[in-house]
Structures are given as C-alpha cells and as structure tokens.
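ok trying again, last paste got cut off:
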Amino acid sequence: MGRRFGDDALFTLALAHRSWCAENPGTESNERLEFLGDAVLGLVVTDHLFRTYHALAEGELAKVRAAVVNAGVLAELAAELGIGPALRLGKGEDASGGREKPSILSDAMEAVIGAVYLDGGWRAADELVMGLLGERIAEAATGPGGQDYKTRLQELAAQRLDTLPRYVVQEEGPDHAKRFYATVYLGDEECGTGQGRSKKQAEQAAAQVAWRSLTTTGECASDESEEVGAGA
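nice, full thing came through this time. structure:
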C-alpha cells in the first residue's frame, strides 16, 4: 500500500476475520475496524467528489460514489493488494476458499482503511483511498455512469454469488481495424459475450449481457451477444 504502520497491531487486527477469532478465544475480529473504514471511505470519496466536480448535481454525485464504493470494487482492490493471502481465517473458512470470497475481501479492505485512518489520520486515509480509487472516480465522473455495466455486474455478482466476474478477451484484424471479443465468466460458467472496437468496449458489452440476464432471469446467458461502440 506504500506505507509503513506506526502501530503494527492495527494492521494485524484489520486482517483478523471472525472465523479465526472463533478458533482463538480472547482475540478481536476486524469488524469494528470495518465499520470505521466504511465511514472513512465514504467520506473521503464524497469530499473529493464535492470539491472536484462542481457541475455534477447531487443525484449524479451519488451515482459516481456508488460506482466506486461497493463490495465488488473493494474486493477487487483487496485482491490487487494481495490481502487475501494475508488474512487470518479459521480452518474451515480457509478450506472453503475464504481468501477469494468478495464478501470477506471487501470487509477486510474497509478494515484496512479504518486501520490506516487510526494509524495515520485523515491525510493517510485520504492518500490511500485516492491512490486506490482516483482513476476509477475520474472515469465514473466523466463517463455515462448509468451504462457502466462492468461495475453493475461486479456489484451484483459480489452480492448474489460472492464471486467476481472474470473476462477473457481476444482480438482479430489488423492494427488499424481491430475487433475485440470478450467473454465474461462467473465462476466457471460463461455468462455473456460481447464485441467492440476496444478491449474496454468488448468487456462492457459482455457485462451488459450478463447483468441483464442475471437481473431478469437469475441465470447466465452465454448464448447472447452484445456490441458496444459500433458507431464510434
């Protein structure tokens, strides 16, 4: 994360899942830090949005915040930081794949943010959150947030299935006229395909198919395909 803790015990606490505490009586879980970190995260992002995007109305600000402050994004950040392997988990939770569960990862990410806040104050927490989310915030604030199906699918998959989408992208054609074809998987199940003139467009198209299918039928729709940016 680019920082060294003054109080190592805070960081250790942030990684202690309740399943580990159940097997080690007298120890404390990261749930209180998670509660604090959730509030700190929300305030850092809200403060940044309020001070930076003067042209956005309250409703638009709320949409941008929701696009970056959700369980799916937090779990992805935790995975990128390698928090999963460092977690203190009970034997049963560990054996069942707890180190990769979005619900556990997102909670741990909030706990880490809470620990950073306690250890280094507002400035340290602000630097951490903006370092992790700055690009995502800028993208959500300048783009059509309501059409960000990758974020929608990520949040939906984390909530309903406790998993994160995985994208496989292939490209065809010469450099000046490439086409990208994306397939999104939830677990081992193919859940949607899409194409576009960029990798990002293809992934958004595949995510759109998967999200619409999950929200309408509750099942994946691997036989459907969507295209984004055909007129770009």
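cool. The chain has a mean pLDDT of 87. The radius of gyration is 19 Å.
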